[in-house]
Specification:
By secondary structure, the protein is α+β, with helices and mostly antiparallel strands. About 30% of the residues lie in helices and about 25% in strands. The strands form three sheets. It has a six-stranded antiparallel β-sheet.
């Protein structure tokens, strides 16, 4: 049963795809939050009540302190063939040993949910389900979203950014119509389209998240300025350097002006992704 700093997560068979992707990002100097990768065996042991495993998790929680994000990292997840995006559990604003333990238990259970098992059958990922976890410092996002390094609809060689106020879960959960930006490979902004962002997902002081109404004047105001778009363009270029020319699906967030890489996975199911695998 092992847990290692994310920067040391190299074995996908032990720690899962998400942890290994984040580990590679950190080693390359990309702005991913610090944290730990939990091996699949450790996650299962925590879920089954093993005292030594829970003590190890408690030590990790104490070392990181503060609000945390607990994310799934399944073996075979975030591969070029299957992303598993949205299939396994993620928990934000988790504080305290008990809450972290419960989140890891829930991550383990999510690997056996009906939707996750159905997805595995659909993409041919049969066999025993093994799921690790990532425990990270939480980014209290002012603005967050997703970045595709190829257009996921047309396959065009351009960046597509979707953004909204607060945490990225507002986009993931379909609560808003996000702002949409298209950026050329040279950095020129090709399109800015304001969305309708009436709700923001924000952190609660006592843990968990809440849905808050967005101030009226901000609902249709673009939430990314030129400086932020330049930073995202640079992040995409750095991901190309680290992971190859993609295409990449990047989850990002800005907190107090600083850009963070939350997750990176290969794009699946788009014209660009198919071309990249041929």
């Amino acid at each position: 049963m092992t847990a290692v700093p994310l920067a040391d997560a190299r074995d996908e068979r032990a720690y899962g795809g998400k942890a290994v992707q984040l580990g590679a990002a950190i080693r390359a100097g990309l702005p991913a939050p610090e944290g730990f990768a939990l091996a699949a065996e450790l996650v299962e042991a925590v879920a089954r009540g093993d005292e030594a495993a829970r003590a190890q998790l408690a030590a990790i929680s104490a070392r990181l302190a503060g609000p945390l994000a607990v994310r799934s990292s399944a073996v075979g997840e975030d591969s070029a063939a299957a992303s598993f995006a949205g299939q396994h559990a993620t928990f934000l604003n988790v504080s305290g040993v008990q809450a972290v333990t419960e989140a890891v238990e829930a991550v383990w259970r999510s690997a056996s949910s009906e939707s996750a098992l159905a997805y595995r059958r659909r993409v041919g990922a049969e066999g025993q389900v093994r799921i690790g976890a990532v425990v990270q410092k939480l980014v209290a996002a002012d603005v967050a979203g997703v970045l595709f390094t190829h257009n996921p609809v047309t396959g065009a060689d351009e960046l597509v950014v979707e953004a909204s106020w607060g945490l990225g879960e507002a986009i993931v959960q379909g609560l808003v119509i996000p702002d949409r930006y298209r950026i050329g490979r040279g950095g020129d902004v090709l399109e800015r389209t304001a969305g309708s962002k009436e709700v923001a997902v924000r952190l609660q002081a006592d843990g968990d998240t809440r849905h808050e109404p967005v101030e009226r004047e901000l609902v249709e105001q673009l939430c990314l300025a030129v400086a932020e778009l330049r930073a995202l363009h640079e992040l995409a270029a750095r991901c190309d350097d680290v992971f190859g020319s993609g295409p990449h699906d990047i989850e990002w967030a800005f907190e107090a002006g600083a850009l963070y890489l939350l997750q990176r996975r290969p794009v699946t199911g788009s014209p660009a992704a198919v071309a990249a695998r041929e």
